[in-house]
Design a protein that fits this description.
globular; 3 helices; five-stranded antiparallel sheet
Length: 208
Amino acid sequence: MKVSIGYLLYIYLIFFLLMMNSKIQKAEDGKNAGSAKKSVQTGKKVADKKEASKKQTDKKEANKKQAAQVAVFENPEFGRTGNGMKIEVRKPDGRPAVAGQRFKIEPGRFSYGVFQILARYENVQTLKSGRGRNGVRFSVGFPRGRAEYGYDKLKTDTTGSSDWTLYQLEFKIPADADYLVPEFGFGPATTGALFVDSATLTLYGDKK
């Protein structure tokens, strides 16, 4: 048995970016509304409002800071055969910067899968060696585990620059797994740009 889930990762990331922009706008609106109300509040209510406004401002600034460090674009010029995606990390962070989508599956139905990505990358650098976990990341997560192209297949971080290449990650699916999360992007402590033309996840029900 075989099922293909192709090129759906963009939907999740675009939705995430829209939600992030909406949250920043709501934070701005909330700050403006709070400023108008403070003029008629006194005592403890004013102090509480100032504290809430400060937290809201801190959250807004954190969102803007994160947005400035990780940029995501979708445009035909970023793909090889059509519309593509560019993920760029300008400032290294201790967390991964990835785009992904969670898919529910029936436990025991599939035994292994193949995650294929047509991509290229530019000027990828890491602050330290991650033995395959830093640098460019192509991975598939599942309950209590993860398969990673760099860590499991190459045993070293993927850095530098490359031409368009079709990357393929084969992985086993635990019998009790009820979801999969294919991802592409960068691991921790990494900067650079990743261009993705297409991503396809194919699942197989027979044993390999």
